[in-house]
Q: What sequence folds into this?
């Protein structure tokens, strides 16, 4: 299922995206606030491969992002998956190449996923677990209408419900 926004195409991530995802993760700053096997190239590729091929359930998963003006140019991804790939909460997340930070693409893509999850899938809510130092991702969470839910000093959990989403003045 392909999702569309004003400026972006979002399509389910496939193994064809593995090298783009790997290259993005290697760019300075991209994984600074995310735990993962980033230091070992083999483990890193295997992690991405596993995340691409995992079955998260109907309507869930990762979507690769492409600019409508450059439809072959991978700029990042967004996700709706069970938290830490196990749940029970459903997590929304985003990761973009640094060249595309600060332009509103993450919030634009995340809004499309919120609409998909709430309006099409009828899910009750989503969380985002964000490192407290990741100012950019915290701003995206607030911009899409999420509110701080839990704080364990290092990770801030933001949440949004279907009711919160429906009440937002701008989408």
A:
């Amino acid at each position: 299922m392909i999702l569309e926004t004003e400026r972006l195409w979002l399509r389910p991530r496939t193994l064809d995206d593995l090298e783009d995802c790997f290259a993005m993760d290697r760019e300075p700053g991209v994984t600074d606030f995310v735990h993962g096997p980033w230091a070992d190239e083999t483990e890193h590729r295997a992690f991405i491969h596993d995340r691409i091929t995992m079955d998260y359930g109907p309507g869930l998963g990762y979507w690769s992002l492409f600019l409508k003006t450059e439809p072959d140019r991978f700029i990042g991804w967004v996700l709706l998956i069970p938290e830490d790939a196990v749940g029970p909460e459903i997590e929304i997340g985003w990761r973009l190449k640094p060249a595309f930070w600060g332009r509103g693409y993450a919030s634009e893509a995340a809004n499309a996923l919120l609409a998909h999850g709430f309006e099409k899938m009828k899910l009750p809510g989503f969380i985002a677990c964000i490192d407290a130092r990741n100012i950019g991702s915290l701003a995206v969470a607030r911009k899409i209408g999420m509110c701080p839910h839990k704080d364990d000093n290092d990770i801030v959990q933001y949440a949004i419900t279907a009711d919160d989403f429906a009440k937002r003045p701008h989408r």
